[in-house]
Prior knowledge:
Blueprint: E1 11-17, E2 24-30, E3 37-43, E4 51-57, E5 63-69, E6 74-81, E7 85-90, E8 98-107, E9 110-118, E10 125-134
Antiparallel strand pairs: 1-2, 1-10, 2-3, 3-4, 4-5, 5-6, 6-7, 7-8, 8-9, 9-10
Amino acid sequence: MNLDDLDAFVGEWSMSSSFGSGGARTTFEWLTDRRFLIQRWEVDHPAAPDGIAVIGLDADDRLLQHYFDSRGVARIYEMTFDGETWTLERRGEAPDFSQRFTATFTDDDTIIGAWERSDDGVAWTHDFDLGYARVR
């Protein structure tokens, strides 16, 4: 994985979801020296938390997203990005439930995706849709 591939995320995005209306924004920006991509989001909906994520490579060259939100939740997701498809997944070590997100960059300005969850790590159910539209 070349971290430069993550340049596709850099910028400001509006977010929309299937669980309700309300304004939501996220930004992606490089931390100094481009070793970590920082994502920050604010959501104007009571069911969704604000948060921050740090994306980077671990010692085994796995791409990880370290997630923290305003509820005090902290999670680690394995991440992939091939220039078109973006995935986030946590399973196994997750004490409460497994999650995964799969999204497609439909063009340079739109990302369409959905979150799924599993109580056993085998059977997956749709949780909610999440889309991004580039603002700048």
